[in-house]
Recover the amino acids of this structure.
């Protein structure tokens, strides 16, 4: 079992890696002369920075429901974006693809299992991860201080 400080270091390392991937994707798109692929990543970054806690969700996803209930139960005033209800003419497909890119490229876990891009939870504008990361932070006692630091909790 990993200590809390080791887990935090991995989280910060992952954030830096995600930021580098976002920058690389934007640079690649600039080289190609278009903005369509970078737009969803920029939209996610903009939306994630608008509130202390942001959850990208799918309305029919049980794991998304659990994440929203956990955060709401802690007294967090969270902002939820239901990706399947995005009016982009494609059911939020571009947003889902960008979220998948951010949370690990779509593959990971035990035996190379497919990682679902939702729920994608941002605290203080930074990607915390999915339900597994939020639950681990909650169980280890790291979630409450993180939420307080982001201004999502006052007590």
């Amino acid at each position: 079992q990993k200590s809390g400080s080791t887990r935090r270091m991995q989280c910060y390392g992952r954030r830096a890696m995600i930021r580098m991937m976002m920058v690389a994707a934007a640079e690649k798109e600039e080289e190609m002369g278009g903005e369509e692929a970078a737009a969803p990543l920029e939209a996610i970054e903009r939306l994630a920075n608008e509130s202390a806690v942001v959850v990208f969700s799918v309305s029919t996803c049980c794991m998304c429901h659990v994440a929203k209930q956990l955060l709401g139960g802690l007294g967090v005033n969270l902002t939820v974006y239901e990706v399947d209800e995005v009016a982009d003419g494609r059911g939020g497909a571009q947003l889902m693809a960008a979220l998948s890119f951010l949370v690990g490229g779509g593959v990971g876990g035990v035996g190379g299992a497919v990682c679902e891009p939702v729920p994608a939870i941002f605290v203080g504008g930074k990607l915390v991860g999915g339900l597994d990361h939020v639950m681990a932070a909650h169980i280890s006692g790291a979630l409450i201080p993180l939420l307080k630091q982001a201004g999502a909790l006052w007590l």
Summary: Strands lie at 53-57, 79-82, 120-123, 126-129. The longest helix spans residues 4-32. The chain is about 50% helix and 10% strand.
